[in-house]
Specification:
- The protein has helices at 33-45, 60-64, 112-120, 124-136, 141-146, 153-163, 168-196, 206-214, 225-250, 258-281, 297-310, 312-343, 354-415, 447-461, 479-488, and strands at residues 4-9, 15-18, 22-26, 73-79, 84-89, 102-104, 109-110, 221-223, 345-347, 424-427, 432-437, 440-442, 467-470, 495-500, 511-514.
- It starts with a strand and ends in a 5-residue tail after the last strand.
- The protein is elongated and about 135 Å long.
- 23% of the residues are buried.
- Helix 15 links the parallel strand 13 and strand 14 (495-500).
- The protein contains 15 helices and 15 strands.
- Among the domains are: 4-123 and 444-514, Rossmann fold (3-Layer(aba) Sandwich), CATH 3.40.50; 221-352, no CATH class.
- Helix content is 54%, strand content 13%.
- With 519 residues, it is of the alpha/beta class.
- The longest helix is centred in the C-terminal third of the chain and has 62 residues, at 354-415.
- The strands form four sheets. A five-stranded antiparallel sheet has the order 2-1-4-5-6, covered by helices on one side. Strands 7-13-14-3-15 form a five-stranded parallel sheet, with helices on both faces.
Length: 519
């Protein structure tokens, strides 16, 4: 596998170190252990962290402060495959300013220990989601559906499509939540049904409607004596108004307007002829097409318009007469209709009108049809809710079984990288990880224990396609614990760099970088 085999940098006090796939850097505090790790980090990622879980530093001015004054600022490392990473910072013309760093990175480098520490140090929800994703692993939609009963597969497939995930336990929660919402909607609709038909009798039977439809339409109007008298009074008042209005029209000073109205009619005819001529000919002519004079038709049109203005009172009278006659006709028609309706009225208690009953039944039928449609909608919502509830039960049951097996497999994989005596365990219910001691799971671990656990988990979750470098924080290792951890990690397919102040006995497959000699 690929690993970083050499690193050089002028960072802090500078370093030139050869590394192995698994390396232990030994030295007292201040001897430069973290310098080597930060040089690797700067060369591969262009940033430096303080190795205590805080954010990475990328700002140029902050990085520049890590180098001695006046020294060149660079970090370089080479992989076992001869690929090279480099980072270099040059001064700009302005004092205290720098050019954009030159960074060459031929491959992606991952730091799973730091990433894992960030996840497991998060809230319970974050930890649980991460743990479930790790123990389940990726599963295709087809494989997931094949593990479920055929009767619920359509419901689950639809749910997977909407939620875009295949995690059984998470889908079970979603299905339960959606089922609750659907039942709540159904309850609201059912209450609406009650209000739609409250106080409304059921509609007529088909036989009853058919009998009413066969009866002839009655032309009789049934009125009470008060209604009949009120209607007669209204007819009388309208007749009086008609007579008054008709007399007013006859008393208009029409005799005085006879001569003017005759002249107005002639002028209107002349104007009509002029407009017809203009429409036919188009352009104005130089002489009158009627009398043959050299006056243009436009001149004649102007004269006719002037004449119409002089006859303005006759024109207004003409319009008033037309409007009055139209109004008189409207009053007359309304009066005739009222007299007709009144003449077919009968005083006394109204007999049941078949048409009225049918009309009322139409309204009732519409109300009950709306109620039935709402009931059907509520029933569909409850059916969907029942299907989701059934799906949730199967998802939970199958998911728990899969999770139990996957959890056991994942714990075994992590335990393969722990020293003998350490037993890693996951408690998904409480979102905890830790070491089992007797009958209890202990998640409140010492710094060295937590390092061992995180290192083992990191080795169990890394991907082969990425260059992974595991660097735990510099803890106060004791010699035995350190040696046991080194032996447990001897088969890990990742690069490991451990910093320590105690020198372990040689372990096969590990490279020792002893800074005590240099210090």
């Amino acid at each position: 596998m690929r690993y970083i085999e050499r690193v050089e940098s002028s960072l802090k006090g500078g370093c030139t170190v050869d590394l192995g796939q698994r390396t232990v850097i030994v030295g007292p505090n201040g001897s430069g252990k973290s310098t080597i790790v930060q040089a690797i980090e700067l060369a591969t990622s262009g940033s430096v962290s303080d190795m205590e879980g805080r954010g990475q530093v990328r700002q140029t001015t902050a990085l520049a402060r890590l180098f001695p004054a006046g020294a060149s600022k660079y970090a370089w490392c080479r992989l076992s495959t001869s690929e090279e990473f480099s980072w270099e910072l040059e001064d700009a013309a302005k004092k205290g300013a720098y050019k954009k760093p030159l960074h060459e990175a031929p491959a992606k480098v991952s730091w799973p220990f730091q990433e894992l520490a960030g996840v497991l140090g998060g809230d319970a929800g974050t930890v649980q989601s991460w743990l479930e994703s790790q123990v389940f692993g990726p599963i295709t939609k087809e494989d997931a559906l094949a593990k479920l009963p055929p009767s619920i597969r359509p419901t689950v497939e639809n749910l997977m499509g909407r939620k875009r995930k295949t995690d059984f336990l998470s889908l079970a929660k979603d299905a339960k939540s959606e089922a609750r919402n659907l039942r709540s909607q159904a309850t609201k609709l059912e209450k609406t049904v009650d209000s739609l038909v409250e106080g409304i009798a059921p509609p007529l039977t088909d036989a009853a409607r058919k009998e009413l439809e066969s009866k002839p339409v009655s032309d009789v109007r049934h009125l009470s004596e008060e209604e009949y008298e009120a209607e007669r009074t209204l007819i009388s008042e309208l007749a009086d108004a008609y007579a008054t209005f008709e007399a007013a029209i006859e008393n208009e000073p029409g005799n005085q307007m006879v001569g003017k109205l005759d002249m107005l009619n002639k002028v209107q005819v002349a104007m009509s002829l002029i407009k017809q001529h203009k429409t036919s000919v188009g352009e104005p002519t130089e002489y009158c097409w009627v009398c043959g004079s050299h006056e243009s038709d436009q001149s004649h049109e102007d004269q006719v318009e002037a004449a119409m203005e002089m006859l303005g009172d006759a024109l207004a009278y003409q319009k008033r007469c037309v409007s009055s006659q139209q109004k008189l006709v409207e009053i007359e028609e309304k009066l005739k209709q009222m007299v007709h309706d009144n003449n077919r009225a009968v005083i006394g208690e109204a007999k049941p009108d078949p048409q009225l009953k049918l009309a009322k039944d139409d309204v009732v039928r519409k109300a009950w049809a709306n109620a039935d449609a709402t009931k059907a909608e509520a029933a569909q919502l409850r059916a969907k809710a029942d299907a989701l509830t059934s799906a949730a039960k199967s998802l939970s049951s199958v998911g728990r079984d899969l999770l139990t097996k996957a959890k056991s497999d994942f714990e075994k994989k992590v335990n393969d990288y722990l020293p003998e005596g350490d037993v890693f365990e996951i408690d998904l219910a409480s979102s905890r990880v830790g070491l089992r001691r007797g009958d209890a799971l202990h998640s409140a671990l010492s710094g060295a224990e937590w390092n061992r656990v995180l290192m083992a988990i990191s080795c169990g979750v890394v991907h082969d396609s990425t260059l992974n470098v595991l660097v735990p924080p510099d803890r106060a290792w004791d010699q035995d614990t350190l040696e046991h951890m080194m032996k447990a990690l001897s088969t890990a397919e990742v690069q490991i760099v451990v910093m320590t102040t105690v020198k372990p006995e040689p372990v096969e497959g590990w490279t020792l970088v002893d800074l005590t000699v240099r210090s």
